Amino acid sequence: MVRRVLALTSGRIAAAVLTVxxxxxxxxxxxxxxxxxxxxxxxxxxxxxxxxxxxxxxxRDVLSRLLxxxxxxxxxxxxxxxxxxxxxxxxxxxxxxxxRVFEWTTLRLADTLVALPFLLFxxxxxxxxxxxxxQAMLVTGVLVSPLFYRVARAATLAVARSxxxxxxxxxxxxxxxxxxxxxxxxxLPPIAVALAxxxxxxxxxxxxxxxxxxxxxxxxxTWGGLLASDLGYLSHRPWAPVAPALLITATVWASNLLxxxxxxxxxxxxxxxxxxxxxxxxRPDRTDPAPAPAPAGGAR
Amino acid sequence: xxxGPARTADDAGPAGPVLEVSGLDVHYGPRHxxxxxxxxxxxxxxxxxxxxxxxxxxSGKSTLARTVLGLVRASAGSVVVGGEDVTRHGPRxxxxxxxxxxxxxxxxxxxxxxxxxxxxxxxxxxxxLLQGVPREEAAERARAFLPRVRLHEELLARLPGELSGGQRxxxxxxxxxxxxPRLVILDEPVSALDAATRVQILEILKELRASGTALVxxxxxxxxxxxxxxxxxVLHQGELVETGTxxxxxxxxxxxxxxxxxxxxxxxxxxxxxxxxxxxxRALLRT
Lengths: 300, 287
What we know:
Shape of chain B: globular
Shape of chain A: flat
CATH class of the domain at 28-33 and 52-252 in chain A: Mainly Alpha
Order of helices and strands of chain A: HHHHHHHHHHH
Strand content of chain A: under 5%
Oligomer: heterodimer
CATH topology of the largest domain in chain B: Rossmann fold
CATH topology of the domain at 28-33 and 52-252 in chain A: MetI-like fold
Order of helices and strands of chain B: EEEHEEHEHHHHEHEHEEHHH
Number of helices of chain A: 11
Structural class of chain A: mainly alpha
Largest sheet of chain A: none
Helix content of chain B: 25-40%
Radius of gyration of chain A: 24 Å
């Protein structure tokens, strides 16, 4: 799958952008040229040699805050997406295979989560578990999980009732085998698209909760938090939101691009696409063996 | 058996029938609106025997096959597969039985019964891997089995969508037989194929008969069944109305429905008298 995705230009671009974002998340806090929390008199300053991206309303260096906040922003967003994936996709797949009681229970649970008021529930759970980024993101992930539940369930339903799954059952396949071998590859594209969407939504959620004092505590910086504070001073520094907005947009765009690439190369359609591209470029496809000649004894 | 596991006297199972169905009832639908699909069906298949199961659409042929395979639950009666009473088996017991490779199934539509994302090799090795055969050995056995169904080794890397209808059906037959099952149920294996490919598949099935595998050949077409079957069983509205040797059933049909089936077989020279006879038989069945 990785080789197939990287065979596409869009897949390579998405991987490159996401690698840069991941490096920022890993090393950003150490790369910050100045203390991201240090305030100064030079507020709302334009870009200069000392402050490459200017300063915010408290005189803090914007570049340092962006770099320092990248880890929390990316990790928070990933935590939301992965929690939603595990809490939603797994029961969604199993609801098709594990009998009616499990199916009914998970369906009603998903309905309940959809009906819960998002921010109120997040505040209530954080009050119960204690305030922290992990708690806030776990709660958010659980609340987003019905999206993954629905997507995974709908995709699995289409596959689980197919004859090739029945053929595997007749050969003695267990639920785990069927999911691994026949279901997962087919439901991965829609789940990847939902995951990319959720990563994007995650940035917005992190900033929304920061605004309410949940999760990341001020003055710790996040990309969403920077964007929110910059929007309050648009008349003084109209270009200020560009940097955090660009980072968020690039991450969401690359995630969507990667999801589209996964969808494009998945399954038989993906193989045909890569074969066609290989043929058009006049080179053999890198991911598949050479096409076989017509069988000697096989009547077509 | 070329490529497949050679069956010895020890693992040939008990000398009795490989399939024994007694008084089988199957119902569909919720309790207050149950409708019968099979009523009191009794059928026995001996090792190495080929039984043709014929009947029109909706007569219960596929339901009988799916009940024998544990995909549909019996309402009453008993099903004994390979000497083991499977009527009250739970999912775990069924899985254990299936992994022993006693019974296999060939679906009507090979395109839908083969995973479109798995290569021919992956599809053929799957039943072997489920039996615990190491991957390399499974691949080797799958490769060695291909000549038996007249497929070339180079097709192993292809996807089902890259094969012709006949090739796909042969892959489906190979997948069912690669584990060396004692009983194979074939659900209309040639109905979707052209005449030339149909003959080829039927020839392969005849060769398989000689290897000692018992076959239940389901079809609505008596012509396809008669050529390969030792015995024929006729299903009509969920009931087994006639069973006998292929010769007897084809040449001396007793039940009006069997006579109607034989009389309805398409011929190049269909006389008006045939039509009148068929109408008379239909009227008899309605009473």
